[in-house]
Structures are given as C-alpha cells and as structure tokens.
Amino acid sequence: MDITELTVHELQDKLKNKEITISEITKAYSDRIKEKESDVDAFVTILADEAIVKSRKIEEKINNGELKSSFAGIPIGIKDNMCTKGIKTTCGSKMLENFIAPYDATIVERLNKEGMINLGKLNMDEFAMGSSTENSAIKKTKNPWNLNTVPGGSSGGSAAAVAANLVPWALGSDTGGSIRQPSSFCGVVGLKPTYGLVSRYGLVAYASSLDQIGPITKDVRDCAMLLNVLAGRDEKDTTSIDRPKVDYVEALKNDVKGLKIAVPKEFFGEGINKEVKAKLEEAIAKYKELGAEVEEVSLDIAEHALAAYYIIACAEASSNLGRFDGIRYGHRSEKGETLRDIYFNSRSEGFGPEVKRRIILGTYVLSSGYYDAYYKKAQKVRTLIANKFEEVFKNHDVILTPTSPTTAFEFNSKSSPLEMYLADICTVSVNVAGLPGISIPCGVDGKGMPIGMQLIGNKFQEETILNVAYTYEQATNFRANYKPEFKK
Amino acid sequence: MARSDYEVVIGLEVHAELSTKTKIFCSCPTDFGGEPNTHCCPICMAMPGTLPVLNERVVEYAVKAGLATNCEISRDSKNDRKNYFYPDLPKSYQISQFDKPLCEHGYVEIEDDEGNLKKVRLLRIHIEEDAGKLNHDEFGGGSLVDLNRAGVPLIESVSEPDLRSAGEAERYLRKLKSIFEYIEVSDCKMQEGSLRADVNVSVHKKGEPFGTRTEMKNMNSFRSIVRAIEYESNRQIDVLEEGGIIEQESLRWDDVSGRTFSMRSKEDAQDYRYFPDPDLVAIRLSEEYIQNIKDNLPELPESRKERYMSEYKLSEKDANLITASKYLSDLFEGTKNVCGNAKLSANWILSDISRILNEKEMEPDQIPFTAVQLGKMIQLIENGTISSAIGKKVLTELFENPIDPEGIVKAKGWIQISDEGAIKAVVMQVLEANPQSIADYKAGKDKALGFLVGQAMKATKGQANPQMLNKMFIDELRK
Amino acid sequence: MQVSREQLLHIANLSRLNLKDDEIDNYLENLQEILTFAEKVNNAPTDGVDETIGANDNYNVFRKDEVIPFEDKEALLQNAYSQERGMFKIPKVIQ
Questions:
Q1: Is B415 buried (19+), middle (13-18) or exposed (0-12) by CB count in 10 A?
Q2: What's the structural domain count of chain C?
Q3: Chain C interface, mutation test: which of B44, B56, B289, most C Cβ atoms within 10 Å?
Q4: Using a CB-CB distance cutoff of 8 angstroms, which residues of chain B are in contact with residue C85?
Q5: Which of B220 and A181 is assigned the larger pLDDT?
Q6: Are residues B16 and B38 in the same domain?
Q7: Do the Cβ atoms of A379 and C88 come within 8 Å?
C-alpha cells in the first residue's frame, strides 16, 4: 500500500482501524517529497523534517487525550501567501523572499487546532497574479501529468503537490480562478468558497474583494471535509459572514435526481478547445443519465466579467501592494541614498514584471480622470453580473461550465499578458459575483492531460455543488482511471 | 491698494485624536508616549495579510461630535482608502472617508470681529487613522520610524471658508476644541498633537471672487495659527499687489523665522486615488442609534453658562469665560463643590489662575493641580488659616508642585497669625517706627493706613490676619 | 483610451516604480492592449445599475474598544532591513 495514494478520508479510516500510524503517514510523505519534488518543484519551503518531529508530538497528544480531532496528524500543504508564524511566507516573490510572518493566518490557526501537520509552503504566481505559476520568482513548478506543461495558477504549487501525492491535500487561494484552473490542469478537485465563507485574515491580499481561500484535494469528500475546517466567521475579517455551521460531508448525497443544471451556451462557444467541449458534453450526458434536468441557458457575461475583473483586481492590488516599501519588511535595495531611491529601487527590484504591470494598470484606472470610466463602471458591471447569475439561479440549482478553455499549456507559450488573462475567462465571473465554484476532473484530452468541469452554485450553496460534484465523481471515478505520469 | 481693500478668507481642517482606549482598526492602546513601536501589532504595522476591524467607539464619538456641532448624521457611510507613499504611513494608504462622511452640514457659533454672533459652517466630519511619527536620528543622520501613533483614531472637521480673520479662526478653533472637550471625545491636547489644524488661506479684493488658496499643514498652537494666518495673508496681498499670482500649494509654517515655506516639489504631484476600502464593510446607522447618542450627550457649554448665571449668579461675562474651556468649567464646578463658594471659586479661576496661565503661555488643560486642591486652598482662606495674600503664594506653589495646600502652608510656615496679642505687638512696633504716618493719618491722609498695614504684613511675611490688622491700627490711631 | 508615454511615466511615479527605457515600450504596449480589452465594460448595459460597494452585504461589523496587547514585539521588527532603538531606520526625511 502506498500511503500517499490515499485520500484523507481513507487515511482516517486506516488510522481508526489502527492499520497505520500518524508517524508512518508523515514518513511516507517525507519520502515521497524526497523522491518526486525535484520533478515537480511544488514547494517553496519544505517542512518534512519538522513534520516528523511534530507527528510524534501529535501522537503523544492523541494518546493522552489532549487531541481528539479526526484530522490530528493529517499532513497538509499551504500556498505560500498564507502567513505562518516563524516560517517564511514568500508569496512567490523576491520582495518577500526572506519574510517571516509574526503571526498565523486564521485558517492556519484552525489547521493547527485540529492538529494537522504543515508539510510545507507551496509555490505560486507572484502575489497570486497569474494563471500558470510561471510568474513565481522562486522556482518553476511543473505539471505532474506532463513536466513540460504548466500546473496552472496561481495556486500551481498546491494543485501540483496534491496531484503528485506530495501532500494529501492543500490550501489554495482563488481571486479569478486560482484554485479551480490549476485543479483542472492537474486533475484534482478545487473549490472556491462563497466570498465571506472563509476568513482572509493572514492571506496576503491580492484583490481583497475577490480573494478567497479554499481546499485543493484528491476527491470531493476530502474537499467537503477540509471546507468543514475552513468555513466560519472570523472576528478579524469583517467580510467573513456569520451563519450557522454546516456539515458539508453530510451534503454528499450521491443523488442529483430532479436537480436543475444550467448550461450557459456562451461558455461553450469559440475559444473553448474542442476536446474540452466534448468531455463536458459527455459529463452533461452523464448528469442526465443520473436523473438531473439539464437546460441550456444564456449567460452572456464572460467578457464583461473578465474586463471588470482585471480593472477591479488590479485597482485593489495597486493599493494592497503599496505597503511593500522596504522599510518594515521585504526587499530593500542596496542602491541609492534617499528615501525616494529606497521606494523606487526596492519596489522595482522586488516585484516581477507581471506584478508591476498590474500595479500600473490598477494605479491608472484609479487615477484622477479615469476612475469613473474604468473603476466605477467596472463596479456597475459587477452588480450586473451578480444580477444575471441571480436570474439563472431563480430556476436552476447549479451552473455547469468548463473550468478552463484549454488543458495545461506548455511553458512560455502565451505571447502576451492579455492572452494569459483570457485563460481565466470561465472562472473570473464567479469571483466577480462572489459565488462558490468547484472544479472536478471529467476526463483527459488526446495527450492525456486532465480536463476540468466547473460547477457554480448560488451564494453559500457549497452543499449543492459539492453534492453535484460528488455524484458525478462516484459515477465516473476519474482517479481510478487516470494518474499523472510525470512525462518528461 | 491698501490692505484694507482686501478680504481674507480662511477655512480650517481640524484633526482631533479621539480618546478611545484602542486604535481605530486594531486593539493596540492609544496612550501618548511609550517606548517606540510598543503600542503596535501586525495590523497597525501593516504586516502582509492583516485586516482592519473598525472600533465601534470611533463611530459613536464621531456621531457625538457631529450632533454637538449641529451636523446631519449619515445613515449610510463607508471607509475609503487614500493612497500615498510616506514612511509614517505603513500601508501606503490612509483609511479615511471620501464621499460618504459620517457627519455633514453642521455649524458652530462664534463671535465675529465686531462681537456679533456668527455661524461658521462645517462641511463635514469624518473618521480616519493617524500616521506614525518620524524621529530624527542624532547619530546616523537618518530618520527613525515609530508607529505607536499609527492607527490612532482621528476625526477631521472641515469648515467652509467662512472665517475672515486670524481672530475669527482662533475663536472658531477654541470653540471646536471646547465642544470636543465637553462631549469628551478628545482631550484636545495641542501640545501633544492630539488637536491639529490645516489652515487654508486666500485673499481677494472686496467684491471680487475668492482667490487661490494655500494650505498650511499640521499647525498645533493657537499662537502660531494666528501668526501664520497674518503672515500668509499679508504675503499673498504683497504678491498680488506686485502683480504676481498665488499658486495653490501646501506650505510649511516655520515658527522660528515666522515665515511660510513651499513644501512639495513638482515631481511629487499628488493623486490620492480614493476608492472604497474592500476590507471594511458598510456603516449603517439606525434612527435609534443616533437618538440614543443624542439623548446621552453631555451638557454643552451653552447650557452650563445658563446654569452658572442662574444658579451661581455669575455675570454673563464670567460665565462665558469659564465655560469657554471644559477644563476651566470642570475646575470651577469641582472647586465650588469642595469649598462651597461659587463666587470665590470663579474669582480665583478668572483672576489669578488665568493670569498665571497667560504668563506661562499654558492652556487650561495643562493646569497641574486638581479642583480638590484649589477648593481646599479656598477653604483655608475662608476659615482664616491663611490670608488671601498667602493664598496667591499657595496658588503659585500649586502650579509648581501640586500637593495638598494644607501641607504647603505647614511646610512653608504660612499659617495666618490671628492671635490678638501677637498682632498687637506688631501693630505697636510698626507705629513706633513710623511716626510720620501717624501724623499723616491724623491729618486726614487715609492712604497712610494702607502703608502701615503693608509694613505690618511685610514684618509678618504676609501671615498676619489683614482684617485684624486693619481694625487694630484704626483703634490705635484713633486713641 | 490612448495611453501616452508621459502618462505611463506619471503612473509609474505614483506607484513608486522605475521603468527602464526598454521596459517602457513593452509596458506601454501591454497596458494599451489590456485597457482596450478592459473598455469592454463600457459595452455592458449598466444603465440604472448601482455600482457594487464592498465585497458583500455585510454591514456594521465592529470591534469593542478593548485593549489586547500584541506580545511578540521582537517578531514585529525582525524583518526590518535596518533598525535603531526599536525604530525602523530610513534615510533622512526632509520635512
């Protein structure tokens, strides 16, 4: 038995039956990282040794009754934009290459409380800006299915690590598709929760009104379990919502009979790869077979959403990233004498080209004379998009679309930033409207690369999309049929 | 043209630090002073990933301030980011309010230069966070950033350009300060920087449209505000008279040279790129919330003034002077409660204490002693333990070393001599030494009595009971 | 909207970013392309639609005015490039 092949719920079963121990789990992952990390380069910081020490302490605590959580001793990987006290948090940037946070993010506190073990910090596009993880200043993460292709982004390290069994599950963050698109590229499950379901305190902000933390897992049940740990109001984040606790695992009914699935035709038009489209159509047929009612609808928002997204996200980012001035933390240039030099040189040396591009775009759209034409207009479009989704959800339970127009592409294959932005065309509208979305694998293309299906729910309807995803997964069992091959 | 052909137009943006226990967006203390960067946490240091949470008391205090200055309170408000780079601003944006301030369209009443009542309109009062402090590094020649003050809550009160002289500006600022003190939202200590004003000045020929304004930032004493307005308005008139034009710019007032200087270079053209802070949610105030604050508003100066006139029979002038400052007014009420004599309490405050404050260039909030101490001192006079003359000395002492006045009197040996025998001895001694004065008195020169009493006081170092001295001299001289 | 070189430099200055000469043309081209795409928001039928303010419908989420001191003062300073007497050191600021 290869422990690292198992899902977390399988690990829990084996722990319960005393077939394995926590130390054995940690050891298995430590070995797996030694074996495969050099192929994938998913980690910025590996904490395998620390994890082994921690696993012994956790075992002690379990034995003397201090820890009762069923997650105690389960390892996890964390995207490197979530603050971990005493451990580097780089955001994939030269700016924060050596930054050690003085505090734990709220979700990190929650993992710690459950007794989960941090296996390491995972690579990402710099400050979560990108769709391929190529924008990391630290290293180039590869897609375990084909090492010549990107893992997607910005949570590329998280998705690749889960796909390559380097961690049993991981945390990602999603601003415009950064959990779902890499999950799609790497053939794993990724969920972006409703805005406000999960605390953002300690998540280094890219675009505050769009960012959400969510799980990246091997299967839907794990996804529901991890969401159980993450969800809940945090008094440190005023945008987190106070609502009754839900058990997402209980929502997995394995039944979609009578459920109404909307398929917006605009998400299947030109620009969507034929093989992707074909697999999605197979999935739609499967849902019909399982008893769901599928209806084609019109939801002509994708381009407007993408345009509004880049205006709003960059505007917020330009302000959020002002704090990196080389004074209290972060890269400080050795060049220059004056305060002005420190600002300009530290920021220009510390930020990579994509980050600078978005700061400049964001500064432009907020600047005097342009605010109304871009930012204000984009915020109106945002309302419009939310209204249009609402319209669809009046008569439907979920919306089904591709997660990405394509499967994983090769490194350096996008000729312009805009072309890269278009990779987010299927996912951004979900963030713009603050809705939950999940990506699950629904097959592979001719080259054996995974294809993702996105299921979008109404606000706080994570239970519905998890159940719809779960029912499909149970009926098709992607993991049993396909495995990443580390093709070189 | 003469200066009198010009009209000066002044508007004030007044920043008052709120006297909350904690900062506006985190749970760090707001106490003044403290070792550098010890009243800080990841939030006010703008560590990556941190988020602000608004202090409920900041909203309450701002609403209080708005109600006390006749503002309309916004039912729907929000926080915005003002983006600019400066080392005392750790996030590189200040969380402030842009288009939906908590309070709008208020006014306060002052006396204009002719002594008539004048309404000065308030455009708005909004909440925002203070910046940190830059200290000079004596050794390395650099600057040092201390963020203890970063995130201390402020209310900014923006007046309309309704003020027409330095005097009006001063009275307006004093009035605003006094209101904030009365409603206890700010201690308004200018010397600690908890009350500061940005002063906008322009001039124009009477009958013509307003001129271009300049702004002098962060002024924190009444004296420099008055001087700066006078200097800057004269400078502008001179420029115009010489055919020049006024540039809209920020100026720095230099107290030592008594001049203003241009502050920013052209390359730092500002564009604050205000936008709603996505980390904070909307503020919606209900009628009940606002009514509840209104119902619990402390007594304002106008009402105290009326009460002092009706209950304690103070003159309107005296009541005005005392209620102009909450510190004086509180001192008066406290003193009166201890000594039981409102009139005497008022007299001491308006004569000797005000004189000393003037001499020392101190504000009432800097009075070091308590109302109990002052009240006890008045009691000592009332019960004959000390004379009024000694009282003045005790008061001087209280300003230096505010301890129990009885302790001062004992330690200094200032207890009044009321013993008849002892007084008689002094009287006889003085009469013996001044035969000419006796003659003068008998010749009808009443002044001679004053001289004799003065000599006796001198001989007893002011400790003799003056009433007894007076009586005894008259008795002896009439013999 | 057409972005000029001067505008780009002004924006870079506001953002405290240096752009090297060879970067300027590249950024100018990117910015123009992205802005042209972003202008698609203008085709959206937003008449009578309110702008979204805030990330969601939450409101009045406040904190009590109670002091909670942050204990780990050292950790707050540990990432600074230069410090002196517990303060962050920077070149002299002329005020």
A1: middle
A2: 1
A3: B56
A4: 36, 144
A5: A181
A6: yes
A7: no
Domain that holds residue C34: 5-43
Distance CA A216, CA A218 (A): 7
The residues, any chain, with a CB within 8 Å of residue B474's CB and separated by 6 or more, are: B449
Does pLDDT of B33 surpass 90? Answer: no
Does B176 map to a domain? yes
Q: Which of C41, C45, C31 is nearest to A308 (CA)?
A: C41
Q: How far is CA B331 from CA B175, B185, B319, in A?
A: 18, 18, 13
- Which positions in chain A touch B45 (Cβ < 8 Å)? 328
Domain count, chain B: 3
Q: Is the pLDDT of residue B309 over 70?
A: yes
Q: How many CB atoms lie within 10 A of CB C41?
A: 29
d(CA B135, nearest CA chain A) in Å:
14
CB-nearest to C65 from B55, B137, B273 is B55
On whether residue B293 sits in a domain, the answer given is: no
Residue B150 falls inside a structural domain: yes
Q: Closest residue of B to C59, CA-based? A: B282
Q: Are residues B120 and B198 in the same domain?
A: yes
Calculate the CA B145 to chain-centre distance.
28
Instruction: Count contacts between B and C (CB, < 8 Å).
Output: 121
Has residue B443 been placed in a domain? yes
Verify that B151 and B218 share a domain, yes or no.
yes
Check A210 against C53: CB less than 8 A apart: no
**Which of residues B412, B435, B456 is at a domain's end?**
B412
**Quick one: average pLDDT of A377-405?**
97
Domains and CATH numbers, chain A: 3-258+396-481 (3.90.1300.10)
Alpha-carbon distances of A140 from A271, A349, A356, B187, rounded to whole Å: 27, 19, 19, 57
Contacts of B273 in chain A (CB under 8 A): 318-319, 363, 366-368, 371
Average pLDDT over residues A118-130: 98
Exposure of A245 by Cβ count < 10 A (0-12 exposed, 13-18 middle, 19+ buried)? exposed
